[in-house]
Each structure stands twice: as C-alpha cells, then as structure tokens.
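Entry 12.
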Amino acid sequence: MPGRSDLVVDPEIRDQLLLARRGQAYWARRLAALPDAGFSAPSLIPGVSRRLLIAHVGIQARAAAMRVHSARTGAAPDPAELGDQFLDVRFASTLPVEALRHLCAHAAVHLNVEWRDSPPDVWERVRDTVWSRTKEVWVRALQLGSGGSENELPFGLVERIRAEGWPIEITDIRNPRFD
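Predicted 3D structure (tokens):
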C-alpha cells in the first residue's frame, strides 16, 4: 500500500509543516530523555512543573487537531471534547507518567494526520495552527529542562519567535493560550 502524503500544495505551508514536524521530533526526543522520576520536578518556567508543561503540549496538539478536523470536515466540534482546556491541562498533569507520554505522542500523531488530510482549500483557515504548534514544541522542549539548548533550534527560528513577542523564556503557562 503506498504511503499517504500531504494534500497541501502551497510551498510556504509545506515548509512550515516541515519545521513543525521537526519541532515535534525535537520535543519527543527531549521528552524521551526525561526519566520517569523527573516528571514531577520543576520545569525551567518558575513555578511550573514538568507535568503541567507536558500536559499543556499534549492538550495544545489535541485542540489544534480538533480545529483542523472541524475546518476540514465542516463538522462542528463536539462540545464535550472541547471542554475547558485550562482544566484539561490541570487534569492531564495528574496522569501517570506513561499516560502523559502517550497523550503527547498520540495527540501529535492526530494533529499530523489532520494536517496531512487537509485539502488546499482548508489551509487558509488553519495555516496558523502550524506556526502555533511550531512555537509550542520548540520552545516547550527547551523549557522542559531535559538537556535541550537554544543552539539546537533551526537557524532564524529563535529570532522569528522573539520578533512576534513570544520570547523563548516564556514564564507563564498557568493560563495557556490555544491559538
């Protein structure tokens, strides 16, 4: 069976998807480098545990996937699935370590599938999900505090993130935004 590929035709969006997917892989490596015992330790964000940061990244991917799915299918999102994302993050942060790891991995796969299956006419409505996710995974991977370095980020990414007013040293995810 042949593999499936993105339906998007815009070369700029294709490049953005590549950067987001590379960021997801970087996040996954940083998360894999974190021993289970280290999940309850603080992240590099003052007052924020790694558990909360990890849950935030997973829930952000879920929210983006639901948004893309709704745009692609025309179906209104199920209100029960949307929930209160702030509360969802708080709840998810209490999950066992293995469940937190699975939340991040499965939500990322779901988002990637939604992006892949989105035809060209959908992309104007959801293209911002790609940049939002790109920032999320690269920056949070550093804030996880599992050995990542700003020097490992792609050339120009740090400057672009800072130029938008989203500094690498974000210090508040207690009320996370889900753009």
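Annotation: Residues 170-179 have pLDDT under 50 and may be disordered. The chain has one domain: 25-163.
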